[in-house]
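Hey, can you fold this one?
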Amino acid sequence: MSMTAYLDESGTHGASAATQVLAGFIATEQGWQAYERDLAALLAQHHVEYFHAIKFRKRQGPFKHFNVATQAIFIHDFFELVHRHLAYGFAVSLTQKDFLGIYRAAKDALPKRFRHDSQYGVCFRFCMSAIQTFMKGQPNECPVTVVLEGGHKNSGDALRVFGDAKAEMERNEKDTTFASMFIETKKNSLPLAAADALAHSLFRSKSTGILIPGVKRSSGVVMDDVVPRSAFREASEPPRIQHFSLNAEQLAAVVQMYIEHETRP
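Sure. Predicted structure:
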């Protein structure tokens, strides 16, 4: 029985964004089928055609008929489906300051022909690592198919990273965690809704201090009620949702990996 991971991003569509976030969820085929069935019913119940986190927060587009109370009810039920049907959630965040600082420092150590990962690509590389670590506990459910929301200009960089990393794992580690990767859209792929909500929730909390998207403090529904803060931590045993906030040390390790890869015989 194989699994599928759906990923989406936040903080990547504006030059002023200080942090980029890439997040996703993984589940079995049966888990995703149950999630899609129940999410379709939830959307129909609220007369919503599709889910988009920013439009949900701003009560625009398919959510223009919502009010604050409706948002609170909807997002509670929305994440209840996530916890009921999906196996594992992960999020990677990276500040522009750390990304530029470390990569500039490594510029002279790498060949001029070397193609650096974009900030988006670095986040995607760590998402692959999170998936790989989780799947070590699910050996009978490999390989994993990855589906990425294609709205970002660097989604092509993620395809390159996926191909390179998959080939490297299979060659050096005999690791066959990953199968293939596809690009999809939110309107055509309901499972991307979960990744979109997680990525945007985390981006908003890190960049502005605002908690769950579109829900005011006075509503009584805050991030702790929907995506518990206790879940956003690094731990030896993966929680249901795990957050990796990349720092300079982790980025330096990636750069060192590049150097070793490019200079080995």
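The radius of gyration is 19 Å. Let me know if you want another pass with a different chain boundary.
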